[in-house]
Every structure is written in C-alpha cells, then in structure tokens.
C-alpha cells in the first residue's frame, strides 16, 4: 500500500536537515512569529466579523427608535458592536446629566449646553478607544509581513556563506558538495515567505475593514450627538431664557421687593439681547 507524500515534504525535510545552526535559529524565530501572527489573525478576524454583524443589528434598532435613550431604557444589548458600546456609555453620561444638571422646560427635562459638551467629550473619547481596541495587535501582522522575509533572508545568506566557506576550505567546488548547503540555506527564505504571505493578505483585509468600522463609528458619534442635542438640550435663545426666568421670578416672588431684579430691568436686558 502506497502512502501519499505531502507536497514539498521531502524537499523541506532534506533542506531542514542540511541547514546550519544559524539557519535553524532563524527558522525557529519565524515559527514563533508565525504562531503569534496566526493567533492574531484568528482572534482579530472573529472580533471584526462579530463587530460588523452586531453593528448592523444595532444600527437597525437605533434608526427604528425615536428617542436617543429608547434602546437604553428597553435594556437591549448588542455585545461586540463598537457603536453600541459608544451608545451605551453616551447614554449613561446623558442620564447622569439629566439627573444632576438638568432644567425643566414645559414640563420636560433638558440639559444645559455645558452639560451637553460633557456628553460630546465622552462620545469622542469612546470613539477613539474603540478604534484603538480594533487596531490592537495589528503590529504583529505588520511585523510578520515586513520582517518575516528579512529574517528568512538572513538565514539564507548566512547558510550560503557557510556553504561557500566550507567549499573553499575543502577545495572541491562540485554540485554535489554545494547542493546540500544551498538547499539548507534556502529553506529559511521559504519559511519566511510562508509566514509573510498569509499575514499580508490578512493584514490588508483587516486594515481596510477596521478603517471602515472606524469611519462608521465617527459618523455615528456625530449622528448620536445631534440627536441628543435636538431632543435633550436647552436650545432656547438667550432672550427667551431671560424672559422665562423673568416669568418664573414673577410667579415665585409674590411681591416686587425681595432683592431680585425688577421686571423692567430684565425686560430691558432681553430687548438689548434681541437687538444685538
């Protein structure tokens, strides 16, 4: 019964046995780099695929809602979606501002412009953190792509140098004397290419996908901030704020002489603000 021999198995086995110690050290370094790069490729690939899948579900749910806090109040979760993580932290910050720095307008709670700036800073910070989280580990793949062939080339050049120096000492420049050494030297370059080629394809795909997710995340941060501003921020003009403050002051004062500004003074200030 004949056995099936894997492609290049005999050549690789022969070449590895003929490799010098320096060449085998380079091959060992390449195998360690390959192990790390494949770990990153598998884990990062799963992370990116899950991020794309869950982001689609989250965006569908978010755009079907009418209130920026509707998903948060409903308790829906989309684990793995960077956009949902940004939404969740932004919603928590908005709820905090509504509870601690809110004003009531027509029976509804609103936050001030200063409080809204705090929410915007939170969204921008989370967008940056999510982008960094997606890019984490990509340095290993870029190192495998750029460094793998050079490590293999180092092993090859060193092996060829050893081969030629051995031939020079022996004084016999025959093909049978050169072939084993050259084969042992070239295997380092072969292993380097085996490490670099898969990492190159994975790196290009992942970088493009991460860039797309990051741009999508930045766009959502702006969209979410705009929705919060329209729904929960006090957008009254300054003159309107003064008029409302005047009305509230007159309602709660009961009589004019309590140390508060007179109605005429506030009304005059409001008119000046309007003309300005």
Structure overview:
The protein has helices spanning 9-18, 21-64, 70-74, 82-100, 113-135, 138-170, 175-232, 238-253, 263-275, and strands at residues 102-105, 108-111. The protein has 276 residues and is mostly helical. It has 2 domains: 10-235, no CATH class; 237-276, no CATH class. Strands 1-2 form a two-stranded antiparallel ribbon. It starts with 8 loop residues before the first helix and ends with a helix. Mean pLDDT is 81; it is low at 254-276.
Describe the secondary structure blueprint for this structure.
Layout: H1 9-18, H2 21-64, H3 70-74, H4 82-100, E1 102-105, E2 108-111, H5 113-135, H6 138-170, H7 175-232, H8 238-253, H9 263-275
Antiparallel strand pairs: 1-2
What key attributes describe this structure?
276 residues, mainly alpha, 2 domains, 9 helices, 3% strand, disordered C terminus
């Amino acid at each position: 019964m004949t056995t099936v021999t894997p492609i290049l198995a005999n050549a690789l086995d022969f070449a590895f046995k003929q490799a010098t110690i320096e060449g085998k050290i380079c091959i060992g370094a390449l195998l360690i780099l390959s192990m790390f790069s494949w770990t990153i490729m598998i884990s990062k690939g799963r992370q990116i695929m899950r991020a794309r899948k869950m982001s689609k579900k989250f965006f569908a749910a978010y755009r079907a809602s009418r209130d920026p806090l509707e998903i948060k109040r409903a308790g829906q979760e989309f684990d793995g979606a960077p956009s949902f993580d940004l939404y969740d932290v932004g919603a928590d910050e908005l709820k905090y501002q509504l509870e601690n720095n809110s004003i009531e307008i027509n029976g509804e709670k609103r936050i001030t412009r200063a409080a809204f700036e705090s929410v915007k800073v939170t969204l921008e910070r989370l967008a940056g953190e999510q982008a960094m989280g997606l890019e984490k580990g990509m340095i290993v793949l870029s190192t495998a792509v750029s460094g793998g062939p050079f490590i293999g080339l180092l092993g090859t050049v060193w092996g060829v140098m050893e081969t030629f120096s051995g031939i020079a000492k022996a004084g016999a420049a025959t093909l049978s004397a050169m072939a084993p050494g050259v084969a042992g030297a070239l295997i380092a370059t072969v292993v380097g290419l085996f490490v670099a080629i898969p990492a190159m394809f994975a790196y290009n795909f992942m970088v493009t996908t991460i860039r797309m997710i990051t741009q999508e995340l930045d766009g959502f941060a702006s969209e979410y901030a705009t929705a919060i501003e329209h729904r929960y921020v006090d957008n009254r003009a300054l003159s309107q704020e003064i008029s409302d403050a005047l009305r509230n002051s007159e309602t709660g004062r009961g009589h004019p002489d309590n140390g508060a500004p007179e109605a005429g003074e506030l009304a005059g200030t409001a008119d000046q603000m309007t003309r300005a």
